[in-house]
């Protein structure tokens, strides 16, 4: 990378931008409207893929647990499979991705109903998944210099925006995960030892990587990580996000999460994550995202995972419905194998979600959390609500034994003009108001060939108007 007056081009551009306009506060960045592509999308795919996919033992923190913490099970695994003197960097030469077909990946995600895809550009091990040749500090620890010798991230960045969703007829959005820190990078460890009063690592590597990724691949979402080490001033996060949201090639569509330093977590971002596998239990006033593991044992591929480690399709559909009803998105994680294959069990779950969304996508995409009520229980059945215009969707997550569902929250709305179920040929359902003003609905009697879906069933109430002064039952 060429430099001018001692500054690399990305950092020089940041300085020049600050001269033109002061760096905004986090509060000012938070006031930027979240692009509607993201709030309408509801469902995305997360991909944890890297050198850790080669040993595929334990989880994606393999290097830290083996080389840093020297955990006995990791030590025993390496001794048994590699022998003495083995170095973690040697795994990189085996990371070949020889069966990687990004177009097939993108099509599988679109068929599952996902509207965006987020790939690890670099995890905490520091290995860069893209052609990072313009960032000299990544030399010999990237996919072009070792391993696949192929731009893995670039392949998906090209395929995803050229794939159209069969659910929404919109093209998918591409995003990148990027770890701010690296476990064993000497420059990072030097800054850390100095209590983050110096920024050698940020200036020469982390920040330069972010600019390089945006300029080359135009991700409309950045999923930052490593928030618990150094504050956002050390990471120069606001300076970067100002450029990303105003001057970058994707400024008008750019969104980002809340992991940019110790002072931003669950506070500042286009959307909040707050924790992995996060379920707030009630609607969030700020838009949020539940990043959820499909394999509960690991974010990366784990060869030792058992069937019980994987969430069922029902679990995942309910997680999606829950997130949308609480003003959020679901970002569902997959761990590909080092050869580039998506394990069959992941594809099975994706197919199941896609089949459900083919029937019920109307109640998910472009909807909002209902301000009156997000969830209630009716005779042991959890019901989640979403809304779009004058249409209310009640997601019944368990088929009621008595064929009747009582919607208690609906006494805060006008009487619906029509009640139907998605996937049942627009057939009107029988319903009545009870003496408490609740709507009692008789679920349809269906033969097996007429059951529209599994996992959750959506009752549609059309022509509803919310009361001016509802009593919240959140």
Describe what you observe in this structure.
There is one protein chain. With 474 residues, this protein is an alpha/beta fold. It contains 13 helices and 18 strands. The strands form four sheets. The protein has a seven-stranded parallel β-sheet. Strand 11 and strand 12 form a beta hairpin. The protein is globular, with a radius of gyration of 24 Å. The N terminus and C terminus are likely disordered.
In terms of topology, how is this protein built?
Layout: E1 3-4, E2 7-8, H1 9-20, H2 26-30, H3 36-41, E3 43-47, H4 62-68, H5 72-81, H6 102-111, E4 116-122, H7 152-159, E5 173-179, H8 186-193, H9 200-217, E6 221-225, H10 232-235, H11 237-246, E7 255-256, E8 288-293, H12 313-325, E9 328-334, H13 344-360, E10 368-369, E11 375-378, E12 381-388, E13 391-396, E14 404-407, E15 418-421, E16 431-433, E17 439-442, E18 457-462
Parallel strand pairs: 3-4, 3-9, 4-5, 5-6, 6-7, 8-9
Antiparallel strand pairs: 1-2, 10-12, 11-12, 12-13, 13-18, 14-17, 15-18, 16-17
Helix pairs in contact: 4-5, 6-7, 6-13, 12-13
Which key features would you list for this structure?
disordered C terminus; TIM Barrel; single chain; disordered N terminus; 13 helices; Immunoglobulin-like; 2 domains
Summarize the structure.
By secondary structure, the protein is an alpha/beta fold.
CATH topology of the largest domain: TIM Barrel
Mean of residue pLDDT? 92
- In whole angstroms, the N-to-C terminal distance is 54 Å
Give me the CATH superfamily of the largest domain: Glycosidases
Beta-sheet strand percentage?
A: 15-25%
Q: Stretches where pLDDT falls below 50 for ≥5 residues?
A: 1-7, 13-19, 468-474
Strand order of the largest sheet: 7-6-5-4-3-9-8
Second rung of CATH, namely the architecture of the largest domain: Alpha-Beta Barrel
The residue fraction in helices comes out at: 25-40%
User: Describe the biggest sheet?
Assistant: 7 strands, parallel
Kindly give the count of domains.
2
| CATH hierarchy class name of the largest domain | Alpha Beta
